Predict the structure.
Amino acid sequence: GCGICVHKCPFNAITIVNLPEQLDEDCVHRYGINGFVLYRLPVVKEGMVVGILGPNGTGKTTAVKILSGQLLPNLCGDNDSWDNVIKAFRGNELQTYFERLKNKEIRPVVKPQYVDLIPKAVRGKVRDLLRKADESGRFDEVVKELELENVLDRDIRHLSGGELQRVAIAAALLRNAEFYFFDEPSSYLDIRQRLRIAKIIRKLAESGKNVLAVEHDLAILDYMSDIIHVVYGKPGAYGIFSQPKSTRNGINEFLRGYLRDENVRFRPYEINFSKKSERKSQEGEILVEYPPLVKDYGSFRLEAEGGELYIGEVVGIVGPNGIGKTTFVKMLAGVEKPTEGEIDWSLTVSYKPQYIKTDYEGTVYELLSKIDAGKLMSSFYKSELLNPLGIPELYDKNVNDLSGGELQRVAITACLLRDADLYLLDEPSAHLDVEQRLAVSKAIRSLMAKNEKTALIVEHDVMMVDYLSDRLIVFEGQPGRFGKASKPMGMREGMNRFLASVGVTFRRDPDTGRPRANKEGSVKDREQKERGEYYYT
Ligand code: ADP
Ligand code: ADP
Ligand code: MG
């Protein structure tokens, strides 16, 4: 049954209950008269990692701000004191929490969502910043754990996204606190770094701390959390925190779009990973064959095996940060000239870079119609790309005012609207929530298949790589020094090679088909490593 439907109810003959009005008593915060409304809050538990899973714009960061004392919730009225908040949460697990917060007995520490903003707020060298944060005397240990030795003497302004993320996580870990909030800790990190910080965050909880983490990389959220809350609602309008659930159940209920305990259906369809439309690579027509390529920058050298790309296929590119993925893609695109080997074709390439600049003055519609106004009107592009990515809702917004996730969706759309033979997308999942990641994956697959084009996608989210790719190019080596790129290979071979280099095994969830990382040293982990099967396809 449908239970209570949040959006339009997809089923007939079911009473649609106006949910928010029923939840008045649980109203925590409202931004302005017609602003976003947040209902309920997540729990915080000693010794546990509480994971938060939900779409962008449903109040996850708002909840983090409230629980960390940065935002006094107005209780959807004119509340102006923490005493009233304590009263409102009487009998709830959070009552004592808010009492201690008010009495300054606890000081929560937050790793903020947007690490890109850090250089605007703080100045100076990484070493000085981290020294200042170090209340626990664990400077050396934390720097080593987060592999920050090489950037200690760098100015904050000159860090890459992945380096900023690790500095921000380090600064949080160095504080002496009982409560730690990590808002999207995996952004900009490669898979090995993601697993590494997931382990560090777990260890923090195991040492008796309270940890809460918002995360969109499902494999990482799964690996890191003891329990999770699903947030549902209408992005930008309201959000509701579910009861705490076991990690596996919570994620599966989220994918199904139905919360059992609450009897709420919040999405009319299920997300399932086992149903990817399989494409027989190596059977179609070849787009290009490229020779072995070398790029030598002096301090960094990339060697790539030669290979071929087929028309209609999507090739995932996996490997650590700083290993030459972008360099490789630029050589194929003819933007960088190889040191050895020659690219002598005249392919047209459309490229979405990893870091998107926003110097465009004008609206989203103006930007996109300049690329191809005709496609914006076409029913094919509307149904395959524009509507699934929620682009028409953004048409009137200024490009400069877009949030990180909105800008990402516009940049992906701009890339896919251009006419080209080869599409190159560098980390399309950054800043996107789970449903948006899947919508983007689907759009890329279907456009390549139907338009008979080819795409290369650099991606760190394992679920998305799995969902998107027909084949994989695997990068190995030593980041910042040398990289080796394989030729495109089948998913199974590619995933095995890639995951062996990271040292982690995955299994499939029997209910949803989603990839789940095995705990290190578990029976499954040891058994799969012995057989050399790091991944099930
Ligand atoms: P999430 O972290 O789940 O993406 P947020 O908590 O950041 O969501 O935001 C939820 C909603 O609240 C968004 O629609 C956002 O635009 C709105 N919002 C966030 N901060 C403010 C604010 N200071 N004033 C008004 N609206 C806000
Ligand atoms: P990835 O995309 O895998 O993160 P990149 O291809 O961006 O890696 O970079 C690989 C290495 O090459 C890095 O150490 C980077 O600093 C270096 N590099 C990239 N472009 C240049 C350049 N134009 N000149 C010198 N070094 C470069
Ligand atoms: Mg947020």
The pocket of adenosine-5'-diphosphate (ligand 1) is lined by residues 31, 35-36, 56-62, 236 (CB under 6 Å). Residues 145 and 200 are 8 Å apart (CA to CA).
